Structures are given as structure tokens and as C-alpha cells.
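pinging the channel bc i need a second pair of eyes. not urgent but kinda urgent?? the chain im working w is below, pasted from the shared doc
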Amino acid sequence: MSLQVNLIEEGEQRSGSSLNVKSFARIASIVGPIMIALFIAQQALSSFMLSSQLRNLELQWRAAEPKKKQAIKQADRLTFNRATRKELDNWGHARADWNQILAAVMQAVPDTIQFTTFRSVLSDNPQDPPPSETLIRDYLLTIEGKTRGPQSMQNVETLQAHIRNHPFLAHMLESVSVANFAADATSDDEASRIFTLTCKFKPLPSKEMH
């Protein structure tokens, strides 16, 4: 018969497990707040870094915004200048050399003729429509003048022939016609005559508008 005497009071007895509930709770109460604090610190650091990047991007945008606006203005100006240059180029291709034309007409005028009006009219809408994306210009030169004497009509016809057959004008004129010939109602000279001569130029060669 063996007797076993337990000398340890019930409150002093240890659990058979190496980690009792109280120890676990004590560890959890220490480690848990630390983990939460670390998580909060990590989130705060990430938020701070994102805020810093956002501020840097905003600063870069504000610094680049004037340059972008300037670039847009420059692009608009370039587009406008290119359109203007295209118009000037087209005008240059289709213009008439009026300094040479005027000089040629002056050479063709006989001494018996006096000019009173010299007018050129430009038509950008010829009767025969040009092909798409082309530019054709028709010029009509109107000359008004005076002459006198029994040979007045002959004087006008001489001017007409001189202009039509002038070496510089002949290749560019389509027609030269007397549109009007009448007595000069504004003159006391009964022999004075007024006339109108119209010179229709050939349409200039069409130029493609690039």
C-alpha cells in the first residue's frame, strides 16, 4: 500500500502545458499593440510618401503649365502662318506682272489717244469652274480715253491693234474689243470722242493649292 501526499496547494499547482492562458494573454497584450503601431506607422509613412509625390507632381505641373500654354499658342500661330503663306504663294503664282503690262500698254498708245481711266478687274470665279483644289484668276483690263478728229475711230482701232499685237501682251490676251465709242458729251469740241477698250486676259495656268 503506497500513500501519495500532495504538499502543493491547489493555487500553487502549475498547468501541464508549457504556455498557459494567462501567459498567452500577457504576450498578446504586449505584441498586439506593437503590431498595430507598426501597421499604423507603415500606413502613415506610405501616406506621407504619396502626399510628397503628389506635391512634387503638382509643382511640376504648375511649372510646366505656362510652357504648355505657350506651346499651344505657338502651334496656333504656326498653323496661321502656314495658311497665310499658302495664300500668298497661291496669289504669287496667279498674279499678273502689272508693271510690265502697264509699260507695254504705254508703248502701244499712239499720240492721238489720251487715257482717262485705266482699271483692272480680277475675277476669282471664272465662268468655267476650275478643277477641285485649284486656283484660276481671270483679269479684265478696261481702258477709257479720248481722241478727236475725223479719224477718231481709226485712232481707237490703231490702239486696239497695237495692244493686241504687242510682243509682250499678245500671248496673254484672249481678246481686245471696243466696248464703247461715242461723242464726248462733256466737251465743247464736237470732234472729241470717248471710247472704252476692254482687254480680256487668258486665265492664268491653274496652280494646285498644297
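so The helical segments are 21-94, 98-108, 152-165. and Residues 206-210 have pLDDT under 50 and may be disordered. — does that match what u expected or am i reading it wrong
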